[in-house]
C-alpha cells in the first residue's frame, strides 16, 4: 500500500482529532515525503465552539499547536451547537455545519427534516444509532469537502488514522479507495477525493514509536491514564474512565447524569452514569497530577508540542475503551 504517490495530489487533508493515531498519521506522511505546502489539518470541534460539554477543552488548542509546529494550516469545522445541540434536539432539523476555509467561514445545511433525539447516542457499532460520530465528525467532514469549490477539478487525498487493532468494525475499513464525497465520474461537479488510512495495520507500539521519534508530546488525557483520545465523556467510556471523569469534571459528569433522568434513558444500557462510575477506580496518574488535570480542562495549550525528553504516557498500552 506504500506505493501510493502522495505527491500526485493537489491537497492532502489530515483529519486530526489530536489522538495518537491521527498524530502518527501526520508524522508518517512527513516520513513519506508528503509536500507540507499541500497539506492541511482538519479538526472537528465536537462541542461546536461552545462551552465544554462532551470534549476535553485542551484538545482543539493541542491540534492548533501541532499544526503551528509543523507549519501546516489548520481548519476547524463543527456542528452548530455541537453534540449537545443534537442530543437535545426536539422537533427541529439537525443543525448546520460551519467550516473554516482559506476563503473564510462557510455554513451549510440546517434545513433537513425535523426530528427529536432527547437521548444519548447508543453504545453501538452502528453509526445510525450511535449518531454522535456522524453528527459531529463524519458528516461534518463530508459537508466541508462538498461545500468548497476549491476541491473541484483537482486531486485530494483525505487521510484518517483508524487502526484495525481498535475494533473488528475498524478492521474491515479499506486502507485506500474513493472517499464518500468523490465525484470523479461526474461531468458537472467533478471532484477526485481518495481516502487513505496509512496506519490501519499498525500496532500501538508502532504508533508510540513514531511519536517518540519526532518527540511529539501526547496530548494530556494520555498523560492522565486514558489509552485513547475520544470525546472526554464518550459513550464508550469504561468504568475506570467514568470514575476518573467524575473525579476530573464533577459538574459536567453530574450534568450528563441529570440528562439521563430527564430523558428517562441512561447512556449505558446496564445502569445510570453514577452507578457505572461507582464500579470503577480513578486512574492513579490523574490522582497524582492535579496540574495536568487542570491543564486538560483549559481552552489553551501551554508550551511546545515537542520535547527532547519524551516519555511514554501513563495511558499507553492500557485500557482502550473508545469508539468502535
Ligand atoms: S468519541 Fe465517543 S462520544 Fe465522541 S463522537 Fe465518537 S463515539 Fe461519540
Automatic annotation (TrEMBL):
<dbReference type="InterPro" id="IPR002500">
    <property type="entry name" value="PAPS_reduct_dom"/>
</dbReference>
<protein>
    <recommendedName>
        <fullName>Phosphoadenosine phosphosulphate reductase domain-containing protein</fullName>
    </recommendedName>
</protein>
<dbReference type="Pfam" id="PF01507">
    <property type="entry name" value="PAPS_reduct"/>
</dbReference>
<feature type="domain" description="Phosphoadenosine phosphosulphate reductase">
    <location>
        <begin position="132"/>
        <end position="234"/>
    </location>
</feature>
<dbReference type="GO" id="GO:0003824">
    <property type="term" value="F:catalytic activity"/>
</dbReference>
<dbReference type="InterPro" id="IPR050128">
    <property type="entry name" value="Sulfate_adenylyltrnsfr_sub2"/>
</dbReference>
<dbReference type="InterPro" id="IPR014729">
    <property type="entry name" value="Rossmann-like_a/b/a_fold"/>
</dbReference>
Amino acid at each position: 500500500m506504500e506505493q501510493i504517490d502522495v505527491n500526485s495530489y493537489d491537497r492532502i487533508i489530515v483529519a486530526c482529532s489530536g489522538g495518537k493515531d491521527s498524530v502518527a498519521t501526520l508524522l508518517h506522511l512527513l516520513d513519506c515525503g508528503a509536500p507540507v505546502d499541500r497539506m492541511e489539518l482538519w479538526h472537528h470541534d465536537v462541542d461546536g465552539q461552545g462551552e465544554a460539554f462532551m470534549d476535553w477543552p485542551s484538545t482543539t488548542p493541542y491540534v492548533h499547536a501541532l499544526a503551528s509546529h509543523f507549519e501546516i494550516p489548520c481548519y476547524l469545522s463543527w456542528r452548530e451547537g455541537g453534540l449537545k445541540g443534537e442530543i437535545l434536539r426536539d422537533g427541529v432539523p439537525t443543525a448546520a455545519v460551519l467550516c473554516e476555509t482559506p476563503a473564510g467561514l462557510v455554513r451549510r445545511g440546517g434545513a433537513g427534516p425535523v426530528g427529536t433525539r432527547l437521548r444519548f447516542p447508543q453504545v453501538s457499532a452502528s453509526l445510525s444509532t450511535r449518531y454522535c460520530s456522524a453528527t459531529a465528525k463524519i458528516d461534518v467532514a463530508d459537508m466541508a469537502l462538498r461545500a468548497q469549490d476549491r476541491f473541484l477539478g483537482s486531486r485530494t487525498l483525505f487521510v484518517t488514522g483508524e487502526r484495525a487493532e481498535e475494533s473488528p468494525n475498524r478492521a474491515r475499513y479499506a486502507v485506500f479507495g474513493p472517499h464518500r464525497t468523490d465525484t470523479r465520474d461526474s461531468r458537472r461537479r467533478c471532484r477526485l477525493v481518495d481516502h487513505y488510512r496509512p496506519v490501519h495495520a499498525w500496532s500501538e507500539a508502532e504508533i508510540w514509536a513514531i511519536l517518540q521519534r519526532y518527540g511529539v508530546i501526547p496530548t494530556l488525557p494520555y498523560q492522565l491514564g486514558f489509552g485513547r483520545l475520544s470525546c472526554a465523556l464518550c459513550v464508550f467510556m469504561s468504568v475506570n474512565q467514568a470514575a476518573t471523569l467524575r473525579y476530573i469534571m464533577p459538574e459536567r459528569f453530574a450534568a450528563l447524569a441529570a440528562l439521563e433522568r430527564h430523558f428517562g434513558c441512561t447512556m449505558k444500557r446496564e445502569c445510570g452514569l453514577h452507578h457505572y462510575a461507582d464500579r470503577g477506580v480513578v486512574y492513579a496518574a490523574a490522582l497524582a497530577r492535579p496540574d495536568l488535570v487542570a491543564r486538560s480542562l483549559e481552552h489553551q495549550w501551554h508550551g511546545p508540542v515537542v520535547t527532547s525528553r519524551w516519555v511514554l504516557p501513563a495511558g499507553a498500552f492500557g485500557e482502550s475503551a473508545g469508539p468502535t
